[in-house]
Amino acid sequence: GQNIDQPTEMTATEGAIVQINCTYQTSGFNGLFWYQQHAGEAPTFLSYNVLDGLEEKGRFSSFLSRSKGYSYLLLKELQMKDSASYLCAVRDPHASGGSYIPTFGRGTSLIVHP
Amino acid sequence: DVKVTQSSRYLVKRTGEKVFLECVQDMDHENMFWYRQDPGLGLRLIYFSYDVKMKEKGDIPEGYSVSREKKERFSLILESASTNQTSMYLCASSLSEPGLDWGNEQYFGPGTRLTVT
User: Fold this and answer.
1) For chain A, which residues score pLDDT lower than 70?
2) Residue in B56, B90, B103 closest to A50 by CB
3) Can you point out the beta strands (E) in B9-111?
């Protein structure tokens, strides 16, 4: 089976840094994605990690440790528009559909306040 | 620019009606997906397709069927709508194979909020 855990909700202050964690327990591993979803809108792709380490993209960075089954999304210089849900998704080649199909966590709702 | 479109943003249907949700992508992607999203439950996969006329069940296929007659179009069918199918339905597409530098991430449509009364 697969288990992907994220905190349900986080709050942070504009201009600060926030780290959203994702832990997973899967039979296999073939990549981890982070998506952003604003209320009432579709998820949009943020980052992809398949090897251990940190991937940086502007204000957003994503980290992966395969041995620990752990990832985090780091958001720097928070802006009000960063208020959204952040979805962690893991691809497990042993799951139904094989390596093409990611399984999503339930998402973390981030609230940024002034 | 990448685009996935869905036929309706909002839909209200009666119990027992047959419902069609259409999804079209213009990226020549092989994979297409249907999810439903409910508060507290996250995104759950209903069906996916990795090629024309091919379909595979996801985690919650009961009460749904799909059709993929053309590469760009993937339809979700509710044979007899029930109130527990009231939800947000999201279509997505992706390339078939991940590469070393890309993960065949999914591109999502805007969603259809379906209410069954």
Assistant:
1) 1-2, 96-100
2) B103
3) 10-13, 19-25, 31-38, 42-49, 56-57, 64-70, 73-78, 87-94, 107-108
